[in-house]
Amino acid sequence: MKAHPIRKDLFHKIAFAFSLAILFFSVVVYHYIILPAADRLSAHELAVTGEHIEHALLNYFADIERHLGLLGEYARQGHFMKESPEDFQRFAAPLMKNNQSYYAFRIGREDSREIALFKDGDSWSTRFTDPQNLPGVEQWAYWDRNNLLLKKETLPSAYDCRNQPGFMSTLQQQGANAAYWTAPYSFMTNMEAGITASVRFTANNGERYVLSLDTSVNNISSMTRYITVGKSGFIVLFDAAGAIVGEPARRVFVPQTSAEEKIVTMRDIPVLATLYEQWGAAGRRVDQTQSSQVDGVGWITRFTKMSLGGRTLYVGMFVPAADFPPDVTVPLGVLGLSLLSALVFSFLWTGKITTDISQPLLQLVAGSKKIGELDFTPVAFTPTRWQEINELAVAQETMRQQIAEAAMDLEEKINARTLALQKFSRAIEQSPVSVVITDVNGRIEYVNPNFCQLTGYLSGEIIGGNPRLLKSGQTPAATYADMWQALLAGHSWQGEFINKRKDGTLFNEKAVITPLRDATGDVTYYVAVKEDITRIKQNQKEIADQLEFINQLVDAVPNPLYYKDRDGRYAGCNKAYEQLYGVTRRELIGKSLLDMNYLTAEERVQFHQQDLQMIQQGHTVQRQLRITFTDGEIHDVMNWSSGFRLSDGSAGGMIGISVDISDLKKTEEKLRQARKIADEATQAKSMFLANMSHEIRTPMNAIIGMSYLALKTDLNPKQYDYVNKIHLASTSLLGIINDILDFSKIEAGKLQLDPTPFVLDEVMGNVFSLTQAQANAKGLEFLYHIAPDIPQNLVGDPLRLTQIMTNLINNAIKFTAGGAIVIDGQIAGKMAKKIELRFSVTDTGIGMSQEQVARLFQAFTQADGSTTRKYGGTGLGLTISKKLIEMMGGSIVVDSSPGQGSTFTFTAWFEQVAQNEGKRRVVPEKLNKLRVLVVDDNPVAREILLEYLKSMGFRADEASGGQSAIEAVSQCAADPYSLVLMDWQMPGMDGIEAARRIKNLSALPRIPAIVMVTSFDREEIYAQAQHYNLEGVLIKPVTPSHLLDVAVRLFASGSVQEGRRKPAKEKDYGLAGLRILLAEDNEINQQIAVELLQSQGVEVTVAQDGREAVEAVLQQETQPGFDLVLMDLQMPDMDGYEATAAIRKKSGKLPIIAMTAHAMAEEREKCLNAGINDHVAKPIDPHDLFTTIARWMPQQRPRRALAPESRPVAVSETGMLQAATEEEAKDSGLNTDLGLKRVAGNAILYRKLLRQYVDGQADAAARIRGMLASGDLISGERIAHSLKGVSGNIGAMPIADTAGAIEQAIRTRKQTSEILPLLLTMETQFASLNATIQQYLSGDPVISSPDRRKPLGPALLSGLKQLEALLADHDGEALDCFDRLQAELAATLPTKEYQELERLVSAFDWGSAQKEIAALLAEGELV
């Protein structure tokens, strides 16, 4: 059977491919397996040889470095530090005698002195040079092999060891014991090439030396010349520059024999030069075997890198390729036999493959022919074991299916295109506009049905004709000319025609004609789309007629009428306006009120702005004006203006009408006169009412006061109920009488405003303090918003403003059962230095109807009769407020709806205070761009806080609930929040739970500070805030000052400072005569508190710790009792909490006030829980201390005035602290302004505190470190706490902050390794602070103390007697008395005695000080 051509051709191709593959495989095996195997054998031999060579060379150089280290050690011990060459040679020669590697041994000093030992065969020579002391010469000494001195000589020389290679580099290198190796160079003594190894060492006297060993290239070459690689290969040792350090075998290179050897390089040896250059060109690869050709000879090379004292050396191995011939005879025989067997097998296998492949290929050929004939029926295919053919069959089947699908898709697209054309045709046919298509000559080829319907022509009548058939003769000729000009230019044209129908009727038509172009760009058709606009034209005519009617109607109005556009410019007027004002419409149109000369300049601007506002808002404005008419007389005119809107709702303009009310004004004047008479009668009535009010107030004050005192006595329940009801009723009655009195003053014209400067936030704070309790009692949320642009410093009557706000807020609280009270402040207007403010009070209460609102401001009247019965009140409050507001130049309005709450809005005028005259809060630079998150479910509350924060320059965001707050904080790890203001009560998740979860977000790089914001001042809030370690609580309403205070306290404490002021006269807080027990272990804090309290006339007893305080209180039964206890919380032996607990067991009513450096809310809560009544934070602020004590002092104690002599004198620090500038003090961390403030400006006391601080706190860091080492963490924390408070008292805020951080770290049990850096920081701060304090104290007058006692003078004797008496009574005046005697005592007593007496007095050891002074007085004279 004859084979198919495909099968035959396939057999030949496969057989040929197999043959080529086997041949190619054989060549590859030979070249890439057999030959590389031979090469790898040579490379392996070279690698192994290279490792041995490198090891031998490294041992050679290591021996030199080891000997050099040994010589260096001897030199450090002084064995070679001999001044004479004989001594040097005696010690150095034995060390070099048995080592042939060294040529010379040198020791050079950094100032150029050097002594060297040279080995010349069996003899020795030494050279001594000292260019600084012996310039220009060198001293030589020569010895024989037995170390016998042969001779000495001095030769001229400019030699300086510092110029020797490697000398200066050795001195400058980092490691003192590391060897430094030089590059090859010629030795000066014998001109032989060599290298030097050097080390540096320092003698006991601090001088630095360089010890060097010289070894020649010839010595190194004695090892390299005899190393053979392969059969005839050799090695070379050279540096990175190619200089040879170890020469090759002499058959390759013959050494020079000239008197002056030069440094030989790789390029100087012909056989190596080419190989060296090829290696460099290849990138100096090391540890790799390379093959090269030089002059027809093959070479195998390998280079190894080694490091010598920071210098790189290379070992080059060079072997002729003939030394490693490959043996490939046997492999080639095996390869040939394998090749023949593979060829026979390939022919047999080819026949089998051909049969298996050709059968399915023929099936695929048949299938392809069917596809070519567009026959897409499937063809049967028999799968084979050849995966590729099977995949080809699958691909053919896939192609068949895709072509079939493409054919179907193409048919669908053709059908869709046909359908789209049909739709387009139907759209034109059914279009509501006319469509006409003409050729370029104007012959009509197509019209749609709408055209036929509009014109009355059938399509058969019009097609083939010309559009001129429709011409009516009424379309202007210019229209057709313009149309053809555009069309002939190839442009579209749009215009209107007046055409004629078939029946002769006319119609208006709007047409758009567009030229159509073919593929070449030539115009072939014109398409006209035309719209019937006949109805539109008719409507336009009707509108024009209507407008003319309106104009006639306006002119018929007898009163002046005008209208303006949206910009406030006149658009027209009627005839009455022209006649009365003597102006024509043409003159008026386009002008505004700014152009009206009959108004003042101020009125023009004001009225024009009102016009624009009225146009935008669409409301009505009424004005009363005085205008000159054309009759020349001034008339009173009432003008009404109203804005109107267009059909789309936008502002259109305004319409105004004027009425002459001159006759009405005359009638009003008559009524005014009648009213004046009535007002006089009313004033007389009011005067009587005022007098009666005063008469009633006098007994009422007695009733209220006596009932209050009676309530303080022992009453039985029925008596207490009677008296309490009397007290409440009389207090309520007094409030009514006060309102009546104010009203009577208003009616009588006697009520006057008292303008005075005030701060708006302070006034509002007073208002909130008066009203907040009532709001809290009803559970109302209190919100306060003040626009950031409102100035805080104003001039007005703050008392009356408080009265108005309090009345409105009380009313809002009274009539609101739940929800919120919102107070808002905005700027209403400005004029020169005056500013008009608009305040509003909005509630969510019961609301009022319009009839009730109308009766609000009538005296003794409320919204309805039931209001008084249900809520109480007289109705006078709003009447009085309205009068006060009107006196302030403002007005009050009410917006209310039943059940929707009410908004009372009033305006008032104030004067602005110049910027430099009022207080000013500056946001510290530290707070710039502070990131804050506001969390509140009330959008109004969020908006208020956001506005405040952004006005301060903070970056503020908002969240509407606890969960969204957590998500916001979690998503801002890259730019975390610093502060979160969290509302307490929110739906879903309350503020406490959200704060707790945020505090537990461990993934955050920094946990934000969280301040709870709430309307309810409750103890449970503070307890929860403390429990979850929150940073504070803010009570609504929150003012900008509150927010700034919180931010400064948390992030910029100490950075906001007020300017320096002159000391003010000491205020009397009414504390004189109090007996106070002070429990304080720190002497500085003792002195501060004692002097501050004594400045107010307080009798102070000091207890050194809690135990002494308890004992002092328990002795009250035998001694006069204490009125109050000031208790430090952290003291040795017994702390403040334990002492308080012990005192409370005996005395539950004795007021105890804590004094501590902790100022957080949780500390205050802890104090209250421990039975402490109140809390004063250190550093002590005198005002806070005095007001807190006054709050707790006994109510029945007789008040004594502060004696003038007990008031501290605020000495200016200018004269007392002049040793350093203020900037130096602040740089060192000492804020003298703050320190003086802590002691009420007493500079003398402040200087004492500085001295005591330096003496008592210098070792604070060491003491804390010792406590940490011994494990006594409680004592360490107490020391840090004490240092924190004392440092704050003197104004050393950096140390106070560091001490606070140490205290916190110890309290939270941080690792000691984390605390030690803080202690180092504190020691550094203390050193800087100590220097500054010493500079300050250097300004103290220096009094020369005598060596022996001097006699007592009369004045000093008298003063000491007074001091003894004061010390015996423990009177605080003793300190001032001692200060007055200080100079005379220092001049009388020896230094040690005076300092001991000063220490006793300053340390409050007044018993010992009294004994010392008694001894002095007993002697009568100091000897």
User: Major beta sheet, specifics?
Assistant: 9 strands, antiparallel
Report the span from N to C terminus.
Answer: 156 Å
The pLDDT mean sits at 79
Low-confidence sequence ranges: 865-870, 916-920, 1055-1065, 1200-1224, 1340-1344
Based on secondary structure, the structural category is: alpha+beta
Q: Give the number of DSSP strands.
A: 42
Q: β content, as a range?
A: 15-25%
Radius of gyration: 56 Å
Q: Count of helices?
A: 43
Question: What global shape is seen?
Answer: flat
User: What is the helix content?
Assistant: 40-55%
Task: Using brief descriptors, characterize the structure shown.
1423 residues, alpha+beta, 9-stranded antiparallel β-sheet, 7-stranded mixed β-sheet, 43 helices, 42 strands, 20% strand
SSE arrangement:
Layout: H1 5-76, H2 85-97, E1 104-109, E2 114-120, E3 123-130, E4 134-143, E5 149-156, H3 167-172, E6 180-181, E7 185-186, E8 193-202, E9 208-216, H4 217-224, E10 228-229, E11 233-239, E12 244-246, H5 270-281, E13 289-294, E14 297-308, E15 311-320, H6 329-372, H7 387-430, E16 434-439, E17 444-447, H8 449-455, H9 459-462, H10 477-488, E18 493-500, E19 506-517, E20 523-532, H11 534-556, E21 561-565, E22 570-573, H12 575-581, H13 585-588, H14 601-617, E23 620-628, E24 634-645, E25 651-660, H15 662-711, H16 717-748, E26 756-759, H17 760-777, E27 781-786, E28 793-796, H18 798-814, E29 820-831, E30 834-842, H19 850-854, H20 865-871, H21 876-887, E31 892-897, E32 901-912, E33 931-935, H22 939-951, E34 955-959, H23 962-970, E35 979-983, H24 991-999, E36 1009-1014, H25 1019-1027, E37 1032-1035, H26 1040-1051, E38 1075-1079, H27 1083-1094, E39 1099-1103, H28 1106-1114, E40 1124-1128, H29 1136-1146, E41 1152-1156, H30 1161-1169, E42 1174-1177, H31 1182-1192, H32 1213-1216, H33 1222-1227, H34 1232-1238, H35 1243-1257, H36 1260-1270, H37 1273-1290, H38 1293-1307, ...
Parallel strand pairs: 27-29, 33-34, 33-35, 35-36, 36-37, 38-39, 38-40, 40-41, 41-42
Antiparallel strand pairs: 1-2, 1-9, 2-3, 3-4, 4-5, 6-8, 7-8, 8-9, 10-11, 11-12, 11-15, 13-14, 14-15, 16-17, 16-20, 18-19, 19-20, 21-22, 21-25, 23-24, 24-25, 26-28, 28-32, 29-30, 30-32, 31-32
Helix pairs in contact: 1-6, 6-7, 15-16, 16-21, 17-18, 18-21, 23-24, 25-30, 27-35, 28-29, 35-37, 35-39, 36-37, 36-39, 37-38, 38-39, 40-41, 40-43, 41-42
